[in-house]
Amino acid sequence: MIALCGGAALTLATTNSVTARKAAVDSARAIHEQLVVLDTHFDTPANLGRPGWSIMDRHATDSDGDQVDYPRMVQGGVDGGFFAIYTPSGPRTPAGDIAARDFGIQRAVQIREMVAKHSDVFSLALNADDAARAVAAHKRFVFMSMENGYPFEGDLTLMRTFRGLGVTMMGLVHFKNNDLADSATDAPEWHGLSPKGKDAVAMANRLGVVLDVSHASDDVLRQIAQLSSAPIILSHSGMRAVHNNPRNVSDDDAKLVAAKGGVIQINAYSGYMVDAPAASAARDAAMKELMTGYEKADTMTVTERRALIARRKAIQTQFPAPRATFDMFMAHLLHAIKLVGIDHVGISGDFDGGGGVDGLNDITAYPKVTAALLKAGYSPADIGKVWGGNALRVLKQAQSLADPVLVPKVPITN
Q1: How far is 93 from 50, CA to CA, in rounded Å?
Q2: Using alpha carbons only, what angle is made at residue 398 by residues 82 and 411, rounded to the nearest 5 degrees?
Q3: Which of its termini does the chain have fewer beta carbons within 10 Å around, N or C?
Q4: How far is it, in rounded angstroms, from Cα 240 to Cα 166?
């Protein structure tokens, strides 16, 4: 036997350590590729009306602000997700309701047109079996969801219209209260659901639509959990016990969702994981001026979009704020799993809607989550539940309770 000197031994140990880490990463990636990886909240449809923008192009988060596209779905091993019809809150008037209805329908059509145009790589999914068929055909599946009930608050029969367009998940409220429910980030108005909101819960159950309680107040969550005949979902939320923010769910309410058979999908939204700095009049003024530019986001050219992102980065450099990290995201995820069990937790980055933390800034980083869960001791089967199995189970259960007479036939174009 030849003894190694100190330097040679250290070099050998370092080489072995690097080799072991690479083997672990390669093994985690292989496992990740075998799972059905599903994100329950993509805000990407907001990009579909932008001139020159295509989901088939690879974009750059730093310069474009975009976090989801087909090339990065492939790179991140992402099989599909729920593409959200997000409608900003507006006037609670008949005219406002009509405008919201039209906006929501237009966005739904844009999603369907995206799928039809690229049917060689995308497939519209209406149920869990459609997702499985898409994966078998090496396509990415596209579910449709609604963030904010504003488009149908004036006429609940429109819920059937949106179900007919392919929507399978609906959230009743967003940042502001509406005619259906109270928001988690607004002062109580209805102290939960309005009478019309309670009717909307019943309608969603009859349509086999999963009810999403992210953005809803605590009272709304509890009332929907009581009224709904089907499991419910938090499509993109964090854990309040890890970071106290009204958009995060309390442990007691998380247990309530789980007891209902539902799922808490942990998001990667920095503002819900770390406190913002103290208010600065100069920073607030700069951000307010910047946000007026985002009102025209649907019609921005690529050049205009990049200029806006550059201005935002300049403001963030001038007024630095703490940013959440991958480890913080994992703290929320692991807390949820330990609290309610592996069968009731999932993942959403809230990408293209403000999501992203250091180390998890777009969908290409998703294999890191699989590796971290493996390191934490969870089996591939367990991780498969978190990545998609749990959300698909909730969808299947909700649809099994639907009234087949009420559910419209949805035309498929792919």
Answers
A1: 28
A2: 60
A3: N
A4: 33
Instruction: Give the position of tokens 């502001």.
Output: 176
Tokens of 7: 């330097």
DSSP label of 344: G
Q: CB–CB of 379/370 below 8 Å?
A: no
Q: Shortest CA distance to 205 belongs to which of 169, 240, 178? A: 169
Residues 6+ apart with CB under 8 A from 195: none
H-only helix segments in 94-210:
94-117, 128-136, 158-165, 195-207
Q: Give the whole-angstrom CA distance, residue 246 versus residue 265.
A: 16
Q: pLDDT (tens digit, 9 = 90+) per residue, 199-209? A: 999 999 999 99
Residue type for position 34: Q
**First and final C-alpha spacing in the chain:** 66
pLDDT tens, position by position, 345-404: 999 999 999 899 999 999 999 999 999 999 999 999 999 999 999 999 999 999 999 999
Cβ 183 vs Cβ 215: under 8 Å: yes
- Tens of pLDDT along 72-92? 999 999 999 999 999 999 999
Beta bridge partners of 381: none
Cβ within 8 Å of residue 11, ≥6 positions away: none
